[in-house]
Design brief:
The C terminus is likely disordered. The chain is an alpha/beta fold. The strands form three sheets. Strands 1-2-3-4-5-6-7 form a seven-stranded mixed β-sheet. A five-stranded mixed β-sheet has the order 8-9-10-11-12. Strands 13-14 form a two-stranded antiparallel ribbon.
Length: 354
Amino acid sequence: MIRNPFPAPPVEGQAVSVAPGVLWMRLPLPMALDHVNVYALDDGDGWTIVDTGFDTKRARDIWAALRDGPLQGGRINRVIGTHHHPDHVGLLGWFMQSDNADLMMSRTAWLTARMLTLDEQPAASDQQVEFWRKAGMPADMLERRAAARPFNFADVVHPLPVGFTRLSEGDVVEFGQRRWRVAMGHGHAPCHATFWSQDDDLVIGGDQLLASISPNLGVYPTEPAADPVGEWLESCVRLSGLARDEQLVLAGHKLPFTGLPFRLRQMTDNHHAALNRLTAALTVAPRTAVGCFDLLFKRRIGEGEFGLALVEAVAHVNHLHRAGVIAPLGESDGATLWGVTGAETSANSEKKPT
C-alpha cells in the first residue's frame, strides 16, 4: 500500500522536516502541474540542495526567504540535479555562482541541460513541424505552433557554468550526513539519478518515483525513434530490487510516500495495460499517434497539454513498433497510420510487448 506520512505540503517559503536534517520545500510552476518539490539536507557545515525549480524572480524570492528562514543563512555546499528537466535544474547555475556550490549530476543530464540552455530557437524547426505532422497534430494547431516562438530552456534555466561532479550507476556518495547509493532510471529522462540511503530508510526519487501521477514518457524530434517506454519498464523492474515498503520516497512532485514496491508494480502494470489497449484497438483499425489519445489518457486533452500528450503517444507507438507488434500502414494528411499486421500479433495473441 502507498501511504503519505506527510499529507500537507509545505507553505510557500517554509519547510517541512521529513527526517533528521532533511527539509522538504516547494517552488511554484506556471503550468497544470503547479509545483516542484525541492529538498535541503544538512551537511553540518552548510546544505546540499536537491533540485531547484525554474529560474524566475518569484522562485529566487522564495529561495531568499527559505535561506533566511529554514536554512538559517547557511552556505549551499552543493546542488544536485536529479535530471535535466528545467523545473529541476533552473537555478543550479545560480547557486553555483552565488555560493560557489559544487554541482552533482549524471554526465548525460549535465550535457543535455547545458546543450539546451545554449540552444535558443526563435521558431520551430522544420524537423519539429514534420514530427508533429507525422504524429497527427491537427492542421490548425500545427499552423499556430509552427508560427509561434517555442519554449526554450534559457527562458527559465540559469546558465550552467562549466564543471560538475559526475554521478554514475552504483556510485556511493556522501551528503546530508548520509551515504547514498546512486541508481539511474531512464524513460522520463535519460540517466535520471535516484539516491538510496545506506544509513536509514530514505530514497530521493525525483520524477522517477512518484506516488500518484505517472511521469511523462516522451519522444521528441531529436530522437524520433526512441523507446522511452521500454527504458521506463526496464528501470521499474531494476529499481524494484532496491525497494522496500518502509522506505520514505522523497518525490519530485506531489507527496513523499512509502510503499515503493507496490508503486513500482503499479506503474509497470499501468503501462502494460495501456500497451494492450493500443494493440487491441490497432488490430481493428489503424490510427495516428494522436488518434490514440483516448486509449492512453481516457480524458479530453486540451491544447495546453496537447504537446506532452503527443510525445507520450508517440512513445507508446514506438514501443509497440520496436516490439514488432505494429507497423506503419500508410498516411492520412501526412500523419503516419499505425496498425497490427498479421494474425500472430492480434488482440488474442500470446505475444506481448516487453
